[in-house]
Design goal:
Length: about 120
C-alpha cells in the first residue's frame, strides 16, 4: 500500500524524501551487522524501549522482510541474554496508529557487552 502524495500549490508533485529508515537493506546478515550494535547499546542503558524507538533514533535501515525480521532481531537479543521483555506500550510509529507493542529492557549481560 502506497501513501498518497500531496501535490504542491503549483500542481507539481514533489519528490518523495527517502530517509534511511525507509531504505531497505538487501540481505539479512548485512542488516543485522548494522543494527545489532545500536540495540546492544540501547540495552546497556537499562531503560525500557521499543524496537521502533531505537530504529527511529538512529535512522536504521529497514530489513529485507520488516514484518518478520524486527521481531527476529529482538528474539535473538533475548535468546543471547541482552534484553528481557518489560511489558507493553502504544507505539509512536506513525503508520501503526498507536498499536500495542512489546517493550524491552536491557540486562546485566548487555551492560557488560557495552563496556
Amino acid at each position: 500500500m502506497t501513501t498518497p502524495v500531496q501535490p504542491a500549490l503549483d500542481g507539481s508533485i514533489p519528490e518523495q524524501r527517502k530517509t534511511q529508515t525507509q531504505q531497505r537493506t538487501e540481505d539479512y546478515e548485512t542488516w543485522l551487522e548494522i543494527v545489532w550494535p545500536r540495540f546492544i547499546a540501547a540495552a546497556a542503558t537499562g531503560r525500557t524501549f521499543t524496537c521502533y524507538e531505537i530504529a527511529d533514533l538512529h535512522n536504521l535501515p529497514a530489513p529485507p522482510n520488516p514484518q518478520a525480521h524486527w521481531g527476529r532481531l529482538m528474539t535473538l537479543l533475548k535468546d543471547e541474554g541482552y534484553v528481557r521483555t518489560a511489558g507493553w506500550a502504544c507505539t509512536n510509529r506513525p503508520t501503526a496508529h498507536h498499536s500495542g507493542v512489546r517493550t524491552w529492557k536491557g540486562t546485566a549481560a548487555a551492560r557488560r557487552a557495552a563496556a
